[in-house]
Amino acid sequence: MMNFLRKHMRKIFIITILGFLAGIFMGFGSYFFQKDNYKTAVTVNGVEIPLKLFNSLYSSAVEMMRKESAEEITDETLLQIKVKTLQALVQDEIFYQQSKNYGIIVSDFELKNDIQDSLMFKNENMFDPRLYYRFLQTIKMTPKEYESMRKKQIAGDKLKILLASSIKLMNAEYEAAAKANADITRDQIHQMKINQFLNEWYINLAKKSNVISNNSIFAK
Fold this sequence. Notes:
single chain, alpha+beta, four-stranded mixed beta sheet, two-stranded antiparallel ribbon, globular
């Protein structure tokens, strides 16, 4: 079951992170829990993330698992999906908030191209609106809700690219790594250095963030 979660995590939670930036972003600051709130899933630095968005992503993840995994879905697995869904939403929001501090914006034109260029919505290499709206029905989201989420994710991706562009690999670092592993490439070492930097950058930022979670999410 954990193999399924690892394999499909980004697909399940619809997080677009460029391959060379892919890493495991962990280390959230302590969660505070609030009383049951039927509109908000989590609040990140005062910004409320709708419970409807959480429920849409969580339900889609569970449905995908039922279709693609032969293993039994246990209560523990459901809890893990809830935690990963919540973490994904918090991560997106933190990166989005930081992207605004860097002056990063996402235009409607960029959003349109992002959606129309997505392989999920293409039929014979052409954007097919029917596939797009079928997808929205599957995840139980309106176009406005999904496109708002994608704008935040795109802004976060642009910030990751900006941060990654500042990370350089020194010859001495490559030579030291190559001595330890002759098969490793320069690009692989550079990618690991970028991932380590982004992980540490995010962990430090997340620890300073005020995250208030809706405790009803974790009720059976």
